[in-house]
Specification:
Oligomer: single chain
Strand content: 35-45%
Structural class: mainly beta
Distance between the termini: 30 Å
Shape: globular
Radius of gyration: 21 Å
Length: about 400
């Protein structure tokens, strides 16, 4: 196998063009994708929008839904109020992996779970046949979880019902086991204490035993948690998740970056302006990371997708301090380096990582990927906290 420093080999060309810029409003920090009205088109769900009602002296909290259309655009956002607080109350706006979609009650419509640190819990909004959302009664929600920092929806007991997993800044991981009712405060809860100030969460079957596992990240650290099919976890590995002290992941994802069928870990580390990629061993543990400069400042989120259609997963990062998204292409070895293989695996021609940079709105903090125009290529949508907007970026692969 011969290594060369540079070269010019064929690779699909990718360009993203600016699509819509959707104005949502103040406090917009998170985004999720799903077909909420079951028309076969992806819709955007964002949170949390803050609107001050001076007449009633309150702040109203909303999620927003922008429905997809056959014209490859999104409708004006529809607002769904889920709570209100006194106008002088401090609202901790959730940021990070704080918004999740799934059919919790089995009625065929997507429901929404939103981390709500102000109330020390999460909020649930039930989907309906109109593609709208109905907030759960506050009395049906868990209380006193304290500073919920991330959420996800998955079936941790293999009973066919989706459960809710969340983390908090006090170092705990909670799984709420779905009992088929809308009274989530009566779902049985499992708690695993990991320690640290947990910032982010990802779920996958890391050791391929048919039981869902999780990875959580805290300040400078990450931990892999192996599930037991009952909502409990054991800690399989603790690892450094930064390049130096204080370099911490703001966002984590699990995906097979090197095509070995094992889940790998990807983190966005704003302090070092890098993405870190940890190769998984298929047993619930990860190797030392490779660091990838994002080409932007303060990466707050990362998403995985095959953006150039070559069969290898690429990375897209939202760089909040430079108001950009950078897309990094897999080199065909599960890396993003600068060396060329004359004799690459399976004869696949590759070229060095050539990240592309796309300007977006002010302070991008969350990013999702989906095929908005149904051309087979993943597009991007980015939440910009600074101006309360969503930037839609359309993939024009040639």
């Amino acid at each position: 196998m011969l290594l060369l420093g540079t070269g010019a080999l064929s690779n699909p060309s990718v360009k993203f063009h600016q699509g819509q810029s959707i104005l949502i409003g103040s406090g917009t920090t998170a985004i999720a994708l799903g077909d909420v009205n079951r028309d076969g088109l992806l819709d955007l769900i964002t949170s949390t929008l803050l609107v001050t009602d001076e007449e009633k002296d309150i702040k109203r909290l909303y999620v927003a839904i922008a429905l997809g259309s056959p014209q490859q655009t999104f409708s004006a956002p529809q607002l769904v109020e889920f709570n209100s607080v006194k106008v002088d109350d401090t609202v901790k706006v959730p940021r990070g992996k704080v918004l999740a979609l799934g059919d919790l009650n089995g009625d065929g419509f997507l429901d929404v779970v939103l981390a709500y640190p102000t109330g020390g819990s999460f909020w649930v909004l039930w989907g309906d046949e109109q593609g709208l959302l109905r907030p759960a009664s506050s009395r049906d929600l868990p209380r006193s979880l304290r500073d919920v920092s991330s959420v996800a929806i998955a079936d941790f007991t293999n009973d066919g019902r989706l459960d809710i997993i969340c983390t908090n800044l006090q170092g705990s991981v909670y799984v709420f086991i779905n009992n088929g009712t809308a009274q989530i405060d009566r779902w049985s809860m499992r708690e695993t204490f990991v320690g640290g100030s947990i910032q982010s969460l990802a779920v996958s079957d890391l050791n391929r035993d048919g039981k869902l596992d999780a990875v959580v990240s805290s300040i400078g650290r990450a931990a892999t948690l192996l599930g037991d099919n009952a909502g409990n976890f054991v800690i399989a590995q603790r690892l450094a998740a930064g390049l130096y002290s204080g370099d911490s992941p703001a966002w984590i994802e699990i995906a097979d970056i090197n095509n070995d069928t094992f889940g790998d870990l990807v983190t966005a580390n704003p302090e070092s302006d890098r993405l870190l990629v940890f190769a998984g061993d298929g047993q619930g543990k990860f190797d030392e990371p490779q660091g990838l400069p994002t080409g932007g400042l303060d990466p707050r989120a990362v998403i995985v997708g095959d953006f150039n259609g070559d069969g290898w997963l690429d990375l897209a990062a939202a760089n909040s301090a430079s108001n950009t998204v950078t897309v990094h292409f897999n080199d065909g070895l599960g890396g993003f380096g600068s060396k060329i293989l004359v004799d690459p695996p399976r004869g696949k021609p590759i070229e060095p990582n050539k990240a592309i940079t796309i300007a977006v709105g002010s302070l991008p903090v969350s990013i999702v990927a989906g095929d908005f125009d149904r051309d087979g290529d993943p597009d991007l949508a980015v939440v910009n906290q600074g101006d309360g907007s969503v930037s839609v970026l359309m993939n024009e692969r040639r």
